Amino acid sequence: MTRRPALILGIETTCDETAAAVVEDGRLVRSSVVRTQIDLHQKFGGVVPEIASRAHLECLDAIIAEALERAGVKGPDLDAVAVAHAPGLIGCLLVGLSTAKALAFAWNKPLIGVNHVQAHLYSVMLDDAPPHDGAPSPAPALPAVGLVISGGHSSLYHVRAFDDLKRIGSTHDDAVGEAFDKVAAILQLGYPGGPLIDALAKQGDENAIRFPLSLLEKGSLDFSFSGIKTSVLYHVNGKQGRERDATSLSIRQKADVGASFQRAAAEMLIEKLRRAAGQYETHSLIIGGGVSANSAIRGRVMELGRELGLPVFIPPMPFCTDNAAMIAGLAYPLLLAGKVADLSLDAVATV
Ligand code: KG4
Ligand code: ZN
Question: What is the distance in A from the centroid of ligand 1 to the CA of 51?
Fold first, then answer.
């Protein structure tokens, strides 16, 4: 007798993307709907929490309805409702969490609380099209070292299983995506800065400027990105940070700054990955989060994988940045392990 596949609805509202998705057996993405709020926050140069939570409230119901419709699924057909309940902006988390609780209660389905950062690593398990030969794409051999690089997080994990992760490194100050966004602001490129620097850096020389690398003490798996951000500020705006600004630079000079910063950021990440793989049992390297969309960083991680003889797993592009398929996906092993929540599940801003 063939088993009916498990269908999980995922809801994601941790920051500035409102998203819902339906994933089958934790792998096949039946639908993934993402509404970004970039247009609402652009003029402020960053995410405004109150605007973000209000925007989630206004569109989440319609996004969920669209995800169900595209997947050809009705609420009662689901096996569980999953929600990113941590970490994130508290008002934003509450919108997703209250909605998930209401749906789980109304449809009488298990409710599953998912950690957003850990879900970024699970993104490598997602397939966005049914497998041609009936077999899903290969999954990473575990234990693995996982690196989450996003606008809010730069964290290293030892992934023993996707529902058994240990954080082994995190940032002392800025997240790497935040550093990309701040450097883009210094260069007056716009927001969000990561993709703009990625594109601009292609026209620049990554060896033009030697920005200092902060690697912290020997063996440390933590990160620090505030020093490099300040070095870029002094380089562009002068020693006091306000003698001049990016308007005094040619496009070529801006591209050199962007490329040199990107190379330094990539080197810091790679060194920490190399250290982690040396300290923990590692059969593969997994990278996730918005910054894993960066072409230079992807290239360097692939090189490191070849150097260490480890396969590298990076999510398909649409699942690098925030999405709900990763939430519905990670909920599947949690459901199988009986890690189900009840209606007292809390939203947690930092974990
Ligand atoms: O994972 P994500 O969508 O949201 C968070 O959980 O924070 O990551 C957003 C971050 C932003 O800082 C954005 O600038 C960065 O990912 N990003 C990139 C690229 N695409 C997005 N950074 C560098 N290069 C890219 N191509
Ligand atoms: Zn994220």
Answer: 20
Residues 307 and 169 in one domain: yes
User: Residue 115: which domain range?
Assistant: 7-128+319-336
Q: Which atom of ligand 1 is nearest to the CA of 16?
A: 4
Nearest ligand 1 atom, CA 153: 7
d(CA 46, ligand 1 centre) in Å:
12
Q: Is the CB of 236 under 6 A from ligand 1?
A: no
151 lines ligand 1 (CB under 6 A): yes
Q: Per-residue confidence of the chain (351 residues) as pLDDT tens digits? A: 567 899 999 999 999 899 999 999 999 999 999 999 888 888 887 888 889 999 999 999 999 999 999 999 999 999 999 999 999 999 999 999 999 999 999 999 999 999 999 999 999 999 988 777 777 789 999 999 999 999 989 999 999 999 999 999 999 999 999 999 999 999 999 988 999 999 999 999 999 999 999 999 999 999 999 999 999 999 999 988 788 999 999 999 999 999 999 999 999 999 999 999 999 999 999 999 999 999 999 999 999 999 999 999 999 889 999 999 999 999 999 999 999 999 999 999 998
* 278-296: burial string, b at 16+ Cβ within 10 Å, e else: eebebebbbbbbbbbbbeb
User: The tokens 């749906």 sit on which residue?
Assistant: 103
What proportions of the chain, in percent to the nearest 5, are helix, strand and coil?
A: 45, 20, 35
Same domain, 46 and 92: yes
Dist. CA 193 → ligand 1 center (Å): 8
Q: Is 139 inside a domain boundary?
A: no
Compute the chain's Rg from CA coordinates. Answer: 20
The continuous run of DSSP H or E covering 228 comes out as helix 226-237
Q: Same domain, yes or no, for 118 and 167?
A: no
Tally of domains in the chain: 2
Give the CATH number for residue 34. 3.30.420.40
The number of the ligand 1 atom at minimal distance from the alpha carbon of 262 is: 23
152 close to ligand 1 (CB < 6 Angstrom): yes
Which pTM does this prediction carry?
0.94
Tokens of 156: 């290293």
Environment class of 252 (CB within 10 Å of its CB; exposed 0-12, middle 13-18, buried 19+):
exposed
